[in-house]
Amino acid sequence: MKKDMLSISALSPEYIEDILELGKRIKKDRAQYADSLKGKSIGLIFQKPSNRTRVSFEIGMVQLGGYAIYLGPSEIGMGGRESVKDVAKVLSRYLDCLVARTYKHADVEDLAMHATVPVINGLSDYAHPCQALSDIFTIKEKFGTFKGITLSYIGDANNVLNSLMCACAKVGLNLKVATPKGYEPDKKAVDAAKKFAGSSGAGIEFSHDPKLCAKGADVVYTDVWVSMGQEKESARRLKDFKGFQINDDIIKAANKNCLIMHCLPAHRGDEITDSAIDSKNSVVYDQAENRMHIQKAILLKLLA
Q1: How deeply is 183 buried, as exposed, middle or buried, from its count of CB atoms within 10 A (0-12, 13-18, 19+)?
Q2: How far is CA 244 from CA 12, 80, 213, 240, 286, in A?
Q3: pLDDT tens, 51-103?
Q4: How far apart are CA 45 and CA 101, in angstroms?
Q5: Could you give all domains of the chain from N- to C-terminal order, each with its CATH number?
Q6: What are the residue numbers of the active site?
Q7: Cα gap 199→16, rounded to integer Å
Q8: What are the CB-based long-range contacts (under 8 Å, 24+) for 279-286?
Q9: Which of 119, 213, 223, 239 has its CA at 20 to 30 Å from residue 156's CA atom?
Q10: Distance CA 288, CA 135 (A)
């Protein structure tokens, strides 16, 4: 049976560790894997604009010896001009793998249901597994271990956090989350993370106090307060998230020399200050680079 990469919750801890280890080897010796996917092709079906996801998958596939084709909203119109089912069945005849970046998570699931080739979730409204795997890869790269490390996520409970909760819980990385009242994490994702944490021993805490959340943190992580498709909520969200900005005060509450993470794009001056994202402890560009290494590992696991 074909394998897909739709969410972290479907992956075993062993499978995640395999991806992280393979990503490490790929990053260390790119030339070793130069022809690993020679003759293979992937299609990037994107309903949303993209910088890191598109470029990292396209270039990553080229570096593995394969080929990538970008299929934007104007080319496909998936779910509108053409049904998800028809897109999946037709493209499965042409390509070896599909990467989808969609508004609705249900579209990714439908694509995987009808496709006869592997489907990778490049982002949906519910999950962002490639980002979360890259994030924990970056953390292990910096600390050498997950044991005893605490990641504090402060801000909006979005698709990135849904995947990050499961990723941390699977590998035994402690996680603390602080969101404004009314913006709590998805219950389904929380329940899954707590279940996985029971096996790994990871600690998971939730609060509405950003400074309490930052206390004892080895890593402080945030994301935009207004995601794509939420522009009409901008004024209300900026008001509701006041006090949740990653700034010098929040960083002082964390452990000394804590790492600063942001999955980008960043709205500087809103969820994070220039002094934080540009500090010597910021690893945001390492995160961005590691997207390519981890996604190459995912492609190899699914296609090699």
Answers
A1: middle
A2: 33, 38, 10, 9, 24
A3: 999 999 999 999 999 999 999 988 887 777 889 999 999 999 999 999 999 99
A4: 6
A5: 8-128+291-303 (3.40.50.1370), 131-287 (3.40.50.1370)
A6: 101, 128, 131, 223, 263, 291
A7: 15
A8: 279/251, 281/257, 283/138, 283/142, 283/259, 284/260, 286/138, 286/141, 286/142
A9: 119
A10: 9
